[in-house]
Amino acid sequence: MIKFYCGISEQKWNHHPVSPGPYACVSPVSSSKKHGTKETRVFVPEGTEVIEDSGAFCDPIDNRLTPEDALIRQIRHSAKFNYSHMVTLISSYDLLIDEKWTESVRRKERWNKDEAEFAVKETVLAAKYLNGHRYLVPYAPDVILSVQGVTTKQYMECAETVIPLLKTDDVLGLGGWCIIGIKRGTIMPLFEEIIAKLTPFAAQSGVKSIHIWGVCYAPALGKLLWICDKHGISLSTDSSGPQKRPVFGTWGYADWINREYTRPPTSIRGLERAKHVQAVSDWLAGFRKTKYYAK
Predict the structure, then answer these.
(1) Could you tell me the residue ranges of all domains in the chain?
(2) What would the 3-class secondary structure string for the chain be?
(3) How confident is the model at residue 33 (pLDDT cuts 50, 70, 90)?
């Protein structure tokens, strides 16, 4: 199975309770073209198991925090919105290589090799910082340390530095793939090459769990789940897409998209969002039965 963490960033879903299911991913900040980066005002239902993201996805490159300040932001946010006791994993403050910023406007564009050298260095520094200061987060005993890179060599060099920092119940985070569904023609072959080298190395190093950030693209998940199974590694992913899709009149993913679905009225929109999250969770839980689960 693929464990799904629903990304949440609201206190209500169209006047209905936020219903992410048993697992959620929460970032202390969110961003949009209209409002820029702002604090996420969130409600997490009691009993939900939470990954606390770092907010790195939303911070403009020219306004990034230090790893220390990013961790302080995470700690304060979970306390302010009363979900500290539900956090089971807290993530390092990496630097994404599939987004670029121009005058604080973010666009989907992959970095080149030279640009990504800086991102890799920042990602490694962030992993080292969180590993050395995990005692500051008593409510989250385990961490997600992420890796990045735009070439196989870069990705492996980053992983070879970060993976030794992981402890028994920590999770290896795979960053840099959230645009794989958009750029699949150019990125998918690289993805397959990287996971073919990275996964056995991770397994040999004692990694038990991998989390791929922000991916619901079925062919990529199928390849990754297959190789994780081969090496005895569990897999999870996160996305806010499943709870947002009904708002834009979209239902389903891959081969179960409903082309006739239309945007529901406000009176039931929040309920539809919850139903769609459940449908996606069920799909990912049974992913080995889909046509995408293959070598």
Answers:
(1) 2-287
(2) CEEEEEEECCCCECCECCCCCCEEEECCEEEECCCEEEECCCCCCCCCEEEECCCCCCCCHHHCCCHHHHHHHHHHHHHHCCCHHHEEEEECCCCCCCEEEECCEEEECCCCHHHHHHHHHHHHHHHHHHHHCHHHCCCCCEEEEEECCCCHHHHHHHHHHHHHHCCCCCEEEECCCCCCCCCHHHHHHHHHHHHHHHHHHHHHCCCCEEEECCCCCHHHHHHHHHHHHHCCCEEEEEECHHHHHHHHCCCCCHHHCCCCCCCCCHHHHHHHHHHHHHHHHHHHHCHHHCCCCCC
(3) low
